[in-house]
Amino acid sequence: MDLGLKGRVAFVAAASRGLGRAIAEALAAEGARVAVCARGAGITEVAAEIGRSHGVETFGVVADVSVPADVERAVRAVTAHFGSIDILVTNAGGPPPGPFESHTADAWRRAVELNLDSVVNLTRAVLPGMKERRWGRILNVTSIAVKQPVDGLILSNSVRAAVTGFARTLANEVAPFGITVNNLLPGYTRTERLEQLAGANAKAKGTTPEAAFAAWEQQIPMGRVGEPHEFAALAAFLASERASYITAQSVAVDGGWIRSLV
Ligand code: NAD
User: Fold this and answer.
1) Which of 141, 143, 201, 241 has the CB geometry, 3.0–4.6 Å to 91, for a possible disulfide?
2) For residue 16, is it within any domain?
């Protein structure tokens, strides 16, 4: 199937590694021109590597998505470089794990800035251009937690729910402009974030990271954690021309982990 992504411009936030990087690679593999951001200067080399691997034009910009001024500057830089942004993928690191009483008020504020405000600010910056061109794709990386909260991840469980409410409402507002808004829900997927969660989990339970992985694998019907490219394939499809009538959805890539009917 030709996804119709050749020449489209995608901006994938928080893409130096993990799920963001895998999405950037998947879009580049389909011929999209791809901009990526992350906090460290290494993002320029990441962009160059993606460009070399897939033979497309890429652009890297240093930005902390939890800082509103960085978001505005990054979107301005990408727009100046490519002329427009057709596809926005909002993404960021995950908030720290731990039970309610382990998090200070400041930790809650930071989680909101990192995983909610970043989505709102990125969207605010790209939306006018998408509306003008009457075409756009907004994809938010959230979590399986929006359908089945994950024990010990109260910050993530709470803030992703807010993103889901935002996206569901925005989808209706922008549908008349040919813009779709969907959420991608990663299940347990092999990235540095998952290694960190396994470490934290092991420490809390007095076991090992290997035992944490084994316990997760037992909960997953597929019997294994996912790979970033398996998650990224969904992003490429939902970003595509082919997904023009799919909006306001939260779609999981979780090996069957969520136990709900829909
Ligand atoms: P990761 O930690 O492996 O990678 C995170 C990426 O975000 C890195 O490129 C990092 O440089 C970048 N980043 C972090 N904070 C940033 C900031 N403030 N500004 C700009 N860039 C920033 O994480 P991942 O596994 O790829 O997860 C991506 C998102 O998906 C996270 O929000 C995570 O909580 C969520 N998620 C992951 C899983 C999983 O199993 N991997 C499951 C559910 C949800």
Assistant:
1) 141
2) yes
Is residue 196 assigned to a domain? no
Alpha helices in 36-174 (DSSP H): 43-54, 68-82, 105-112, 118-133, 154-174
Distance between CA atoms of 185 and 182, rounded to whole angstroms?
Answer: 10
Convert the pLDDT of each residue in 177-198 to its tens digit. Answer: 999 999 999 999 999 999 999 9
Q: How far is the CA of 132 from the centre of ligand 1 (A)?
A: 31
pLDDT, the chain, mean: 98
* Cβ pair 29, 55 in contact under 8 A: no
**pTM for the predicted model, two decimal places:** 0.98
Q: Is residue 3 part of a domain?
A: no
Residue 198 counted as domain residue? no
For the stretch 95-118, pLDDT in tens is 999 999 999 999 999 999 999 999
Q: Among 25, 70, 91, 150, which residue has the most ligand 1 atoms within 8 Å of its CB, making it the best to mutate?
A: 91
CATH of the domain at 142: 3.40.50.720
Q: In this structure, are strands 87-90 and 179-186 parallel, antiparallel, or unpaired?
A: unpaired
**Domain coverage including residue 43:** 9-189+227-253
C-alpha 216/C-alpha 158 separation (Å) is 21
Provide the token pair at 259: 């136990």
Residues with Cβ within 8 Å of residue 43, at least 6 apart in sequence: 15, 16, 36, 37, 60, 61, 62
Q: How far is the CA of 73 from the centre of ligand 1 (A)?
A: 21
